[in-house]
């Protein structure tokens, strides 16, 4: 069987989202496989099965890549994106992720093409080399992937599950990330299937969500990636280390993943608020957590829009709850970030009144609110009043046993700066305690961990120890 003469033969040819969602999935099901099977399972039957009797336009031998067996512009064309993924992913997750990406970007699935290695590299050739007892040389694979990354210019990194991506455990995925990040003209976007978005959004209502998120991101370390050929791992990690550096690449991946998750949560909250499926305390929790994510990324305007949209869904009656009080606190924080101190103070007053009526001012939530009130006062130049509130918040935390938490670390750092501004040496000790607490909790290498280090540096600076300040900065 010859490939149709209209089929593209470029090494950058890809398959359309439309083809994957229709004909490809149909083939998977027809041979007795399922969309829950991974690519290792379906590759011999579907991918090589489809192309076994097709003449490869490059080698002129029977047995081509899957994409060479396709024709028709609704199925095959010059790739718009390169997909960076793992063969261990389920077929359905990959197909759904790309379909959702097309929808999100308002792109036609019939004319949006993806370069996917298992479909676009001649697997017959790979198997032939392997059966001869050889391995495809590292440099050949390197050139193959590098040419695609640079030639296509847009990489989609498919990460599943959100809290421990299989993707990050494969060293060739690390190489693709490295190539995309090193090339200043290449864009890198994280994508996920709708099912994973739902799982992530559902987890937001968990009270320990934020701490778990930072823990999950911190565990993402590309140095732990594996390869079927051990030498490949050594060579790729050496390339990365000599280039952008593994630690820097880790931070890029964490930041892109966090950015994608925050956008997904923001969109999901808006969708559920607009259709009425998110209301009351559930809405207060989801919107507060999502706004906190947006705050971490400096997306204060987006948080403002979400918080405004949530007011009608949350404050539907006069009932006072801790969840509503906490949402008022987050609203106040957002005003503070935007430099609207008076509006922030008014929101904090609403939160305080709710907690007072509930008898919860002397609680963890009360301490969190007092910390925000203190920061608001400090921003307005009322440092002594701010320090009094910081100290009261610390007393409450000690009394209710929440002095060994991430929030407590932030409080110690902020209190330390206020004390140093008023000439108290206790400030440096408190800021150092904040750093030590972050280390003990395994949460120093996070956005708020960086904030604590910055506050410690400010304390050193105000006390005249510039070398120590620079070390913390």
TrEMBL record:
Q: Which SUPFAM superfamilies match?
A: TPR-like
Which superkingdom is the protein from? Answer: Eukaryota
Q: Which InterPro entries match?
A: TPR-like_helical_dom_sf
Protein name, as recorded:
Uncharacterized protein
Please give the organism.
Answer: Symbiodinium pilosum (Dinoflagellate)
